[in-house]
Amino acid sequence: MSNNGLLSLSSSMAGDIVVIHINGVLDATTRDQFSDYLDAEADDHGPDMILDLGKVSFMDSRALGLIVHHWQRSTTAGGNFALVAVQYPNSKVMWVTGLSQRLPLFDTLDDALAAFAA
Asked: pTM higher than 0.90, yes or no?
């Protein structure tokens, strides 16, 4: 678990897939914390990763760039990657950039896991 007051990060496992629960602000002030946490989880658990963004209160373009980096890292290594519970009002940058059409977005964790199994 990682918590700096603005951002709280924790993980759980869904089978062999790490699910990262993000609560708070994803911006320049929390980018390093977010980056370090994602790197450590990928190193510890492999390329399969799901980011639960349901409790993200704000996301900027730097955080989105980091998410894209981990999506590419995961898929390049033969893994699965998904974002779940993305809330448009708090993650508008995904739609403004058009990445909402490219990133693997799912409403629920179960939906993402079902897509991984297919």
From this structure: yes
